[in-house]
Write a structure and sequence with these properties.
The chain is of the alpha+beta class and about 600 residues long.
Length: about 600
């Protein structure tokens, strides 16, 4: 089916299914075009893949942004395109084509953040243009009779970071509001998973938490391991959720001890998993979506009321019995239909898995927040889209220990596609014998998200401790800007050479692979610049004469230099230590240089 609408030629492939299809233009703001796709099947059925394809000029498109990418992709051919998969439990329905100048050329988004879809973009050699394709139902869904969604094409020549963020705002305005945000979700946390894995005891954790509290961390996330004696990895013993007494002898006393030192407790749960060795495995026989061989666990099917009631009751019990402050709800993205999944719809109260996932997380969220409105709920990439933002208030970068690039990309991505929630870093870990300025790299790459620290704090050196204290103090003092200021991203093509957050009166920039800062581009009276490059030269570019108070500190906050200078138009070189801070403040009244 071919149709031209609002100046764009579309090709719609219904996959041979009997369905009436309409693509109706809607009114959008200048530069933004909207269409509603309506499908009506001849009878209720499980739909096969339906695609909508169109072409746009290649122009100067050099990179493609997609959620959960780990890196920003270059342009690929349309026979192997860049893909952005999305469902209620994974990803977000958005793809952005970005110019060499980091400007938007086309941002594609869908209003339906729940139904499985896949957005694709690739270079079409024969036409020397870009092929853009939207696929609905690329993975199995429940039977349906009708379907509708709005396609949004943002073609404005604005910064790509802004077009992506405004697509997120569009979702919020159309049925996906952000969850309540407790203040504790915005404060540094101790998350010792990487350093301890499953090997820990309550005594060890309490000793480390005292050190964490002294450094400014106010919550500890106790990860996988508290529920089993088995430390071999995998999830064969998940699902019963009983505290392992050999690790945490008394969970309530453990929580009370943490509260006594001023720390909150968040406990880990793998939401969908019922391990093959769990006592409850037989109870839910016939109510599993599939068995994961590599992880040794079954995946529960939330379309059954019994499954949802069980999971809600587990979390309610832990909240009340142990006075928990929050839950790390893991592996929500494991919910998916497979050929093994049940089809006895008469025994389910949801036919659609996407509806069931939404119902489950909603029921969990409401039950916990009814008892504690300030409860912390951490979700992790890949389940960080608009659907999940209705319920979670902490959204953490996916696992990338030691990978600064993936950490930087993950934080920037989450900052752009979330609104009103707290973005968190992956737990930060580094070698204890690293030079202090290089140990600080992990914090540099995570600075626009809440830092989660994963170190044996008893083992770090004094310079590392001072550096960590300085960064955590700086984050707390500037968290409103770092977490919620307007995000600017430079160097999409190179997975971001610089990132900035703009507050009302101050800007904060981290330089990663460029060392030139344009003073006019920030437009604030105060600017902080962190040198995350490998060199010591930072260049300030002034378009007009500028009088500045300049203060330079190292990564531990110790002063290096403090001067007042009048900068004429052009480039001006400053020496800033690796991982050092450059603090700039405009002097408003000065005598111009003649």
């Amino acid at each position: 089916m071919r149709t031209e609408s609002n100046g764009i030629a579309f090709e719609i492939d219904l996959g041979g299914q009997g369905a009436d299809c309409a693509l109706l233009p809607l009114k959008g703001e200048p530069g933004v075009k909207l269409w509603q796709l309506r499908l009506c099947f001849q009878e209720e059925r499980v739909p096969q893949t339906i695609s909508l394809t169109f072409h746009v000029p290649r122009a100067d498109i050099f990179s493609v942004f997609r959620p959960n990418g780990k890196s920003v992709s270059g342009v690929l051919p349309d026979w192997n395109p860049v893909r952005a998969a999305s469902s209620s439990a994974s990803g977000a329905p958005l793809l952005a084509l970005v110019g060499k100048d980091d400007g938007n050329r086309l941002t594609v988004a869908l209003s339906d953040c729940q139904t499985p879809c896949c957005l694709k973009a690739g270079y079409h050699e024969a036409g020397r243009d870009m092929t853009v394709c939207v696929e609905w139902f690329p993975s199995p869904v429940g039977p349906m009779k009708r379907y509708a969604a709005v396609l949004r094409l943002d073609m404005r020549r604005i910064p790509a970071a802004r077009s992506i963020a405004e697509a997120c705002c569009w979702w919020k305005e159309n049925g996906y509001p952000a969850a309540r945000l407790p203040e504790a979700a915005t404060l540094p946390m101790y998350a010792p998973w990487y350093v301890f894995q499953q090997n820990y005891t309550d005594e060890v954790l309490l000793a480390e938490c005292r050190r964490a509290r002294e450094l400014g961390m106010e919550t500890v996330i106790v990860d996988d391991g508290w529920q089993t004696d088995d430390n071999g990895g995998g999830y064969a013993f998940c699902g019963d959720w009983q505290v392992c007494k050999n690790k945490i002898r008394d969970m309530r006393r453990f929580a009370d001890a943490l509260h006594g030192m001023g720390m909150k407790l968040v406990l880990w749960f793998s939401v969908p998993f019922m391990g093959k060795n769990a006592a409850g495995v037989e109870r839910f026989r016939g109510k599993y979506l599939y068995f994961n061989e590599s992880l040794n666990t079954y995946v529960l099917d939330p379309r059954f009321r019994e499954v949802r009631d069980y999971l809600v009751s587990v979390y309610e019990r832990f909240l009340e019995q142990y006075d928990l402050d929050g839950f790390k709800l893991d592996f929500i993205d494991a919910f998916r239909l497979t050929p093994q999944s049940p089809v006895n719809y008469d025994e389910m109260d949801f036919v659609s898995l996407e509806d069931a996932v939404d119902a489950l997380i909603g029921e969990v969220s409401r039950a916990l927040k009814k008892r504690n409105p300030e409860v912390l709920l951490e979700f992790r990439q890949h389940y960080t889209g608009a659907m999940m933002q209705k319920y979670g208030n902490m959204f953490r970068v996916g696992d990338c220990p030691g990978n600064g690039t993936a950490l930087r990309v993950g934080v920037a991505e989450l900052r752009m596609i979330t609104k009103g929630v707290a973005v968190h870093s992956d737990p930060l870990i580094w070698s204890y014998d690293d030079p202090v300025e290089y140990a600080a790299y992990q914090l540099n790459h995570s600075l626009f998200g809440v830092p989660q620290i994963s170190l044996r704090l008893c083992a770090i050196t004094e310079p590392h401790r001072r550096m960590l204290a300085h960064y955590l103090r700086y984050f707390r003092e500037n968290r409103e800007i770092l977490l919620f200021g307007t995000m600017l991203a430079e160097g999409f093509e190179q997975s971001y050479t610089a990132l900035s957050a703009l507050g009302e009166e101050k800007s904060i920039t981290v330089l990663y692979a460029k060392n030139i800062l344009s003073l006019s581009g920030l437009g604030r009276d105060c600017s902080d610049v962190i040198n995350a490059t490998a060199g010591r030269e930072v260049y300030l570019r002034a378009d007009t004469e500028q009088a500045l108070h300049i203060r330079i500190t190292d990564c531990m906050g110790d002063p290096v230099e403090e001067i007042q200078a009048v900068l004429r138009p052009g480039l001006h070189c400053l020496t800033v230590p690796v991982s050092g801070f450059l603090h700039l403040k405009k002097i408003k009244h000065h005598t111009p240089v003649r």
